[in-house]
Amino acid sequence: MNQPTDFLYIAIILISIGIYGLVVKRNALRLIFSIELIANAVNLALIAFSRMLPSPEGQIFVLFSIAISAAEVAVGLGIIIVAYRFYKDIDITEYKNLKN
Fold it and tell me: Where do the structural domains in the chain lie, given as residue ranges?
């Protein structure tokens, strides 16, 4: 399992699981986990492509992407906590009233 194509296959599987979680689940925490799973699969693919090429730009980009994903999760969890205090539920179908 040292070939970059093996890592790309794993990334495809992770993206598929993440998209399934986005489409099927209606829990706000599961949606955030699915988005993070997709982001990590993209990071894995970038590392695999960077390994195929002799340049380290893909790995540097992945480090920045990980930092941005950490900030995204912190903001998303903060929004979920506030919504839970207001609605007493984390089901996203109840959040339709946030438009008003």
Answer: 4-98
CATH 1.10.287.3510 matches 4-98: yes
C-beta pairs of 79-88 under 8 Å, 24+ apart in sequence:
80/28, 80/29, 80/32, 83/28
From first to last of the 100 residues of the chain, give the pLDDT tens digit: 578 888 899 999 999 999 999 999 778 888 889 999 999 999 999 998 888 888 888 889 999 999 999 998 899 889 888 888 887 877 777 666 666 5
From residue 42, give the alpha-carbon distance in Å to each of 46, 50, 58, 81: 6, 12, 11, 27
Residue type, 5: T
Q: Which residues contact 23 (CB under 8 A, 6 or more apart)?
A: none
Bridge partners (DSSP) listed for residue 27: 91
pTM for this model (two decimals): 0.81
> Is residue 4 within 8 Å of residue 52, measured between CB atoms?
yes
